[in-house]
Amino acid sequence: MEQQTISPSKAALKPGFVTGLIMLVITFIIYFIDYTYLVSAWYGFVSIIFFFGLVIYFGRQYRKEIGGFMTFGTAFQFAFVTLIIAGLVAMVGNILLYQVIHPGLSELLVKVQLENMMDMLDNFGAGDSLSSDQIKDMRTDMEEAYTFGGQIKSFGIALIIYAILSLILGAIIKKRDKSTDF
Question: Count of H helices and E strands in the chain?
Fold first, then answer.
């Protein structure tokens, strides 16, 4: 009897949903601990590490399910769909957080982001080089990122990043069947 394998896209739905929920739970935990951490560099770094780790974990599980070997194309497709689903779940959660649960949070985060950026510019000796109009424009752009439309636009940009990450993850997850080499 022939083994029925699930396509990489279908196999990635559940891991994508689980990864998105885990990322959402982490976001809400960080929000409840101290919302200012949501715009810190370490939070973004930890998020990327979790994304990588979870996709690699689920990718290896899928590879075992389909016989222990996976081509780069299959691994890429699995990783990309997983990241898209996780990103959609996280985006919906962020929209709920910024628009429903705490509508004023975006204003608070923009203030923290601007303070962090000004501190960083001051550390490089460039803090006085920005005009008030430039700072106002940056504030407007930051505020836009937290709107519903801004979240959708950010997801569109994230798709490009997900494709690049999927290339890396596909290279990590793939495993060639060396017994078929001549």
Answer: 6, 0
